[in-house]
Design goal:
about 130 residues, mainly alpha, Four Helix Bundle (Hemerythrin (Met), subunit A), 6 helices, about 0% strand
Length: about 130
């Protein structure tokens, strides 16, 4: 795969993960939906890394770290959102942690976080078109 194909892969993957996240949310699978929102944002960040660095994306899942590798200037609120969303990467991979979150995560919490994630996603998508 050449660099452009890598970038296109991550963009497509981001869209697919976003659609899955929305579907999971509609089906009241809040923790799982946030895991897929994380995957979607991770994928768009990796697309930006590929585009800006002309190399394959690193094998990491920390969203804030990826944004720094991609040289994206985020404000404090955006950084906090990425850090919060990264927690759901852990939840998606470690069932014992996920079950603890099931007790805390509800529809209202998820809706509020999704609103914030959407704003970050808009900013990240602008980075792709630069």
């Amino acid at each position: 795969m050449n660099i452009r194909e890598h970038e296109e892969y991550w963009i497509k993957n981001s869209k697919l993960k976003w659609e899955t996240a929305v579907s999971l949310f509609k089906n009241k699978k809040y923790v799982d939906s946030l895991f897929f929102f994380h995957l979607s944002i991770e994928s768009i960040l990796k697309a930006i890394v590929v585009k800006k660095k002309s190399q394959p994306a690193p094998f990491i899942h920390d969203l804030l770290r990826l944004s720094k590798i991609a040289d994206i200037n985020l404000n404090k609120e955006q950084e906090e959102i990425l850090n919060e969303l990264t927690l759901f990467n852990i939840a998606g991979r470690y069932p014992d942690y996920k079950f603890k979150l099931y007790k805390k995560i509800n529809k209202k919490y998820t809706e509020n976080l999704i609103k914030k994630i959407k704003k970050v996603r808009i900013c990240l998508k602008k980075e792709i078109t630069k």
